[in-house]
Amino acid sequence: GYRVSLQGNVFGLNHTYMTFPEYNPRKHIKLDPPLNIQSNATASKCQIWWSVWNVPWYLAEILQYELQYKEYSMSWEVALNKTLPSSLPQTEIEATELRSGIAYAARVRCKVSENENSYHSQWSEWSQTTVFQRADVPKVSEKILNTKTMQFLFIPLSFGTLLYLFWNCKLSSRRQKASPALTFPRQLHSFSHSIVCTMGILR
Protein backbone atom coordinates (compact mmCIF):
# COMPACT_ATOMS: atom_id res chain seq x y z
CA GLY A 1 0.00 0.00 0.00
CA TYR A 2 0.86 3.66 -0.31
CA ARG A 3 0.16 6.89 1.49
CA VAL A 4 -0.79 9.64 -0.91
CA SER A 5 -0.60 13.29 0.12
CA LEU A 6 -0.72 16.66 -1.57
CA GLN A 7 1.68 19.45 -0.62
CA GLY A 8 1.14 23.07 -1.43
CA ASN A 9 2.20 26.58 -0.55
CA VAL A 10 -0.48 29.06 0.46
CA PHE A 11 0.55 32.64 1.31
CA GLY A 12 4.09 31.51 1.90
CA LEU A 13 3.12 28.71 4.22
CA ASN A 14 3.64 25.05 3.34
CA HIS A 15 0.67 22.78 3.84
CA THR A 16 0.30 19.03 3.52
CA TYR A 17 -3.08 17.52 2.66
CA MET A 18 -3.59 13.83 3.20
CA THR A 19 -5.47 12.52 0.17
CA PHE A 20 -5.28 8.75 0.80
CA PRO A 21 -3.90 7.58 4.11
CA GLU A 22 -3.84 4.03 2.74
CA TYR A 23 -3.89 3.57 -1.02
CA ASN A 24 -3.68 0.10 -2.53
CA PRO A 25 -3.33 0.19 -6.37
CA ARG A 26 -4.80 -3.30 -6.78
CA LYS A 27 -8.07 -1.98 -5.37
CA HIS A 28 -8.26 0.90 -7.87
CA ILE A 29 -7.77 -0.62 -11.31
CA LYS A 30 -9.16 0.69 -14.56
CA LEU A 31 -8.36 -1.47 -17.56
CA ASP A 32 -7.95 -0.44 -21.16
CA PRO A 33 -11.00 -1.17 -23.32
CA PRO A 34 -11.08 -4.41 -25.34
CA LEU A 35 -9.66 -4.32 -28.87
CA ASN A 36 -10.37 -5.84 -32.27
CA ILE A 37 -14.01 -6.68 -31.67
CA GLN A 38 -15.39 -8.75 -34.55
CA SER A 39 -18.59 -10.61 -35.37
CA ASN A 40 -19.98 -13.32 -37.62
CA ALA A 41 -23.75 -13.72 -38.02
CA THR A 42 -25.56 -16.77 -39.38
CA ALA A 43 -29.22 -17.75 -39.59
CA SER A 44 -29.11 -19.30 -36.09
CA LYS A 45 -26.78 -17.07 -34.05
CA CYS A 46 -24.22 -14.25 -34.05
CA GLN A 47 -20.73 -14.91 -32.71
CA ILE A 48 -18.77 -11.96 -31.27
CA TRP A 49 -15.16 -12.03 -30.10
CA TRP A 50 -12.46 -9.55 -29.10
CA SER A 51 -9.06 -9.27 -27.42
CA VAL A 52 -7.64 -7.40 -24.41
CA TRP A 53 -4.43 -5.44 -24.33
CA ASN A 54 -1.96 -4.58 -21.58
CA VAL A 55 -3.62 -6.91 -19.08
CA PRO A 56 -1.45 -9.23 -16.92
CA TRP A 57 -2.26 -12.92 -17.22
CA TYR A 58 -3.40 -13.15 -13.60
CA LEU A 59 -6.02 -10.49 -14.29
CA ALA A 60 -7.06 -11.82 -17.70
CA GLU A 61 -8.29 -15.00 -16.01
CA ILE A 62 -10.59 -13.15 -13.60
CA LEU A 63 -12.08 -10.55 -15.93
CA GLN A 64 -15.77 -10.15 -16.54
CA TYR A 65 -17.28 -8.56 -19.62
CA GLU A 66 -20.40 -6.63 -20.41
CA LEU A 67 -21.86 -6.73 -23.92
CA GLN A 68 -24.07 -3.97 -25.23
CA TYR A 69 -25.89 -4.18 -28.55
CA LYS A 70 -28.65 -2.32 -30.37
CA GLU A 71 -30.19 -1.75 -33.76
CA TYR A 72 -27.71 0.28 -35.76
CA SER A 73 -30.08 3.21 -36.26
CA MET A 74 -31.05 3.42 -32.57
CA SER A 75 -29.36 5.28 -29.70
CA TRP A 76 -27.09 3.52 -27.21
CA GLU A 77 -29.48 4.68 -24.50
CA VAL A 78 -31.95 1.98 -25.57
CA ALA A 79 -29.32 -0.74 -26.08
CA LEU A 80 -29.52 -4.14 -24.42
CA ASN A 81 -26.85 -5.01 -21.85
CA LYS A 82 -25.60 -8.48 -20.96
CA THR A 83 -23.09 -9.28 -18.24
CA LEU A 84 -21.27 -12.35 -19.55
CA PRO A 85 -20.76 -15.30 -17.20
CA SER A 86 -17.39 -16.34 -18.61
CA SER A 87 -13.96 -14.71 -18.61
CA LEU A 88 -13.43 -15.85 -22.22
CA PRO A 89 -13.30 -12.94 -24.69
CA GLN A 90 -16.23 -14.17 -26.76
CA THR A 91 -20.00 -14.57 -26.68
CA GLU A 92 -23.01 -15.47 -28.80
CA ILE A 93 -26.39 -13.89 -29.49
CA GLU A 94 -29.21 -16.20 -30.50
CA ALA A 95 -30.93 -15.35 -33.78
CA THR A 96 -34.29 -15.21 -31.98
CA GLU A 97 -33.08 -12.02 -30.28
CA LEU A 98 -32.39 -10.33 -33.63
CA ARG A 99 -34.80 -9.03 -36.24
CA SER A 100 -34.33 -10.23 -39.79
CA GLY A 101 -33.02 -7.66 -42.25
CA ILE A 102 -31.92 -5.22 -39.50
CA ALA A 103 -28.29 -4.17 -38.96
CA TYR A 104 -27.01 -4.23 -35.37
CA ALA A 105 -24.03 -2.67 -33.59
CA ALA A 106 -22.30 -4.16 -30.55
CA ARG A 107 -19.53 -3.14 -28.17
CA VAL A 108 -17.98 -4.55 -25.00
CA ARG A 109 -16.17 -3.41 -21.85
CA CYS A 110 -14.38 -5.21 -19.04
CA LYS A 111 -13.39 -5.11 -15.38
CA VAL A 112 -12.13 -7.44 -12.68
CA SER A 113 -14.81 -9.83 -11.51
CA GLU A 114 -16.77 -8.71 -8.49
CA ASN A 115 -16.23 -12.14 -6.97
CA GLU A 116 -12.54 -11.36 -6.47
CA ASN A 117 -11.34 -10.04 -3.13
CA SER A 118 -7.68 -9.41 -3.99
CA TYR A 119 -8.40 -6.97 -6.81
CA HIS A 120 -11.06 -4.42 -7.55
CA SER A 121 -11.65 -2.30 -10.63
CA GLN A 122 -14.16 -0.08 -12.34
CA TRP A 123 -15.52 -0.70 -15.82
CA SER A 124 -13.20 0.14 -18.68
CA GLU A 125 -14.30 2.44 -21.47
CA TRP A 126 -16.37 0.85 -24.22
CA SER A 127 -14.58 -0.79 -27.11
CA GLN A 128 -15.04 0.13 -30.74
CA THR A 129 -18.19 -1.27 -32.33
CA THR A 130 -18.80 -4.17 -34.66
CA VAL A 131 -21.75 -4.22 -37.07
CA PHE A 132 -23.61 -7.39 -38.05
CA GLN A 133 -26.90 -8.57 -39.52
CA ARG A 134 -28.67 -11.90 -39.08
CA ALA A 135 -28.49 -14.08 -42.17
CA ASP A 136 -31.87 -14.97 -43.66
CA VAL A 137 -33.03 -18.57 -43.62
CA PRO A 138 -32.58 -20.00 -47.17
CA LYS A 139 -35.90 -20.15 -49.00
CA VAL A 140 -37.05 -23.34 -50.70
CA SER A 141 -36.67 -23.14 -54.46
CA GLU A 142 -39.93 -22.47 -56.27
CA LYS A 143 -39.19 -25.32 -58.66
CA ILE A 144 -38.69 -27.79 -55.82
CA LEU A 145 -41.86 -26.51 -54.16
CA ASN A 146 -43.88 -27.01 -57.35
CA THR A 147 -42.49 -30.53 -57.78
CA LYS A 148 -43.50 -31.48 -54.24
CA THR A 149 -46.93 -29.98 -54.77
CA MET A 150 -47.44 -32.01 -57.92
CA GLN A 151 -46.37 -35.15 -56.09
CA PHE A 152 -49.03 -34.58 -53.46
CA LEU A 153 -51.67 -33.88 -56.12
CA PHE A 154 -50.81 -36.89 -58.29
CA ILE A 155 -52.31 -39.54 -55.97
CA PRO A 156 -55.76 -37.96 -55.47
CA LEU A 157 -55.97 -36.97 -59.13
CA SER A 158 -55.12 -40.50 -60.25
CA PHE A 159 -57.58 -42.02 -57.80
CA GLY A 160 -60.31 -39.62 -58.93
CA THR A 161 -59.64 -40.40 -62.59
CA LEU A 162 -59.84 -44.15 -62.04
CA LEU A 163 -63.01 -43.78 -60.00
CA TYR A 164 -64.57 -41.66 -62.75
CA LEU A 165 -63.65 -44.21 -65.45
CA PHE A 166 -65.00 -47.08 -63.38
CA TRP A 167 -68.30 -45.30 -62.81
CA ASN A 168 -68.51 -44.25 -66.48
CA CYS A 169 -67.84 -47.77 -67.69
CA LYS A 170 -70.51 -49.12 -65.38
CA LEU A 171 -73.11 -46.68 -66.69
CA SER A 172 -72.12 -47.28 -70.30
CA SER A 173 -72.45 -51.05 -69.91
CA ARG A 174 -76.01 -50.61 -68.73
CA ARG A 175 -77.06 -48.20 -71.47
CA GLN A 176 -75.41 -49.89 -74.44
CA LYS A 177 -76.07 -53.59 -74.01
CA ALA A 178 -76.68 -54.02 -77.73
CA SER A 179 -73.15 -52.96 -78.81
CA PRO A 180 -70.60 -54.24 -76.28
CA ALA A 181 -67.84 -54.33 -78.90
CA LEU A 182 -68.21 -50.59 -79.57
CA THR A 183 -68.25 -49.64 -75.90
CA PHE A 184 -64.69 -50.76 -75.14
CA PRO A 185 -62.98 -48.45 -77.70
CA ARG A 186 -64.91 -45.47 -76.34
CA GLN A 187 -63.91 -46.33 -72.78
CA LEU A 188 -60.32 -46.80 -73.85
CA HIS A 189 -60.37 -43.44 -75.60
CA SER A 190 -61.90 -41.79 -72.53
CA PHE A 191 -59.29 -43.38 -70.27
CA SER A 192 -56.44 -42.21 -72.54
CA HIS A 193 -57.86 -38.70 -72.67
CA SER A 194 -58.11 -38.55 -68.86
CA ILE A 195 -54.53 -39.74 -68.42
CA VAL A 196 -53.28 -37.13 -70.90
CA CYS A 197 -55.18 -34.40 -69.04
CA THR A 198 -53.79 -35.56 -65.70
CA MET A 199 -50.22 -35.55 -67.01
CA GLY A 200 -50.76 -32.10 -68.45
CA ILE A 201 -51.88 -30.79 -65.06
CA LEU A 202 -48.86 -32.33 -63.34
CA ARG A 203 -46.49 -30.68 -65.79
Automatic annotation (TrEMBL):
SUPFAM superfamilies, sorted: Fibronectin type III
Subcellular localization, as worded in the UniProt entry: Membrane
PROSITE patterns on file: FN3 (PS50853), HEMATOPO_REC_S_F1 (PS01355)
Annotated GO MF terms: cytokine receptor activity
One of the protein's GO biological processes: immunoglobulin mediated immune response
Membrane topology: Single-pass type I membrane protein
Residue ranges occupied by any Fibronectin type-III domain in the UniProt entry: 33-135
Superkingdom of origin organism: Eukaryota
Membrane-traversing stretches: 149-167
Main location (coarse class): membrane
Record flagged with keyword Transmembrane helix: yes
Record GO cellular component, one term: external side of plasma membrane
Keywords: Glycoprotein, Membrane, Receptor, Signal, Transmembrane, Transmembrane helix
PANTHER family per UniProt: CYTOKINE RECEPTOR, INTERLEUKIN-9 RECEPTOR
Protein name (database record): IL9R protein
